[in-house]
Amino acid sequence: MSIRCLAVDDEQHALDIISRYVEKIPNLELVAATTDAIEAFQLVQREPIDLVFLDVHMPEITGIQFLKLLGGRTKVILCTAYPEYALEGYDLDIVDYLLKPMRFERFLKAVQKAHTLLEAEEQPKTASTSATSFLDDYIFVKTETKGKLLKVVLSEIRYVEGLGNYVSIFTDDKRIVTLLTIKELEERLPKPYFLRVHKSYIVALGKIQGIDGNQIMVAEGHIPLGDTYREAFFNGLQQKIVASKK
C-alpha cells in the first residue's frame, strides 16, 4: 500500500532529512514538507493524509497541541530532540517517537510500524483475523508512579472499575490502577470484546461466567448491569446467545 505522508518541522534542515529518507522508501509519498504548523493542519483537513512526521517544539502550535487537534484523524510519528515528551505522545496514541538526530534505520523501523497499523485497518475484519489480532494486542497505561507505564495485554483483562479520574483494571493475575477516566479507557478498548455495562464498569465479554438478573458474574464476584447499558449489552451478547442454542 502507498502511504501519503506530511512532514512538519520549524527547521528546514530537519525537513530536508525527512524528505531524503522518504525518497528512499518506495511506498511513501511525501505530499508536503512545511515549517508552518497551521498550514499543515489545514492540509490534513483537506487532503487524505495517512501519516504525519511531527516536530514537538514549534512556534505557533506545539506538536502536542497539533496531536490533540488531530483527534486521531491520522497516524503520527513524533520527531524531536526532547525525550521528555515521549510519555505524553504515547498517551495520545502516536505510532513512534524518533529522537533527533534521526538515523535512517530507526526512521525505517517507525515507518514499517505505521505501515503495519495502516494495513491492518484496511483489511476486512473477519472473525478469525479480529480474534487473532485481539489476542496479540496490548495498551500501555500510566500508573500512580510519575513517568511509569505498564503494559496491559487486552486478552488478560477481566473487567474495569471506574474511580473518578482513576480506573482499576482487573486482569487474570493482578489489579492495575491507572490515571484515566473510564470513558477514556472505554474509547481505547476494542468493541465488541469489551462493553460498558454500568457508569462505573466495563467488562470483557469473554470473561463473563454468567448473568443473574442485573448482575454479571465474573471470577471475583458480581458486576452491576445498569439499566442504561442493558439493551446494548444484550445486543452485544446476542450472537453468543443464539450460538449456544444450536
From TrEMBL:
Keywords: DNA-binding, Phosphoprotein. InterPro entries: 2C-system_Tx_regulators, CheY-like_superfamily, LytTR_DNA-bd_dom, Sig_transdc_resp-reg_receiver. Residues 4-115 form the Response regulatory domain. Transmembrane segments: none annotated. The keyword Oxidoreductase does not apply. Residues 144-212 form the HTH LytTR-type domain. Pfam families: LytTR, Response_reg. This is DNA-binding LytR/AlgR family response regulator.
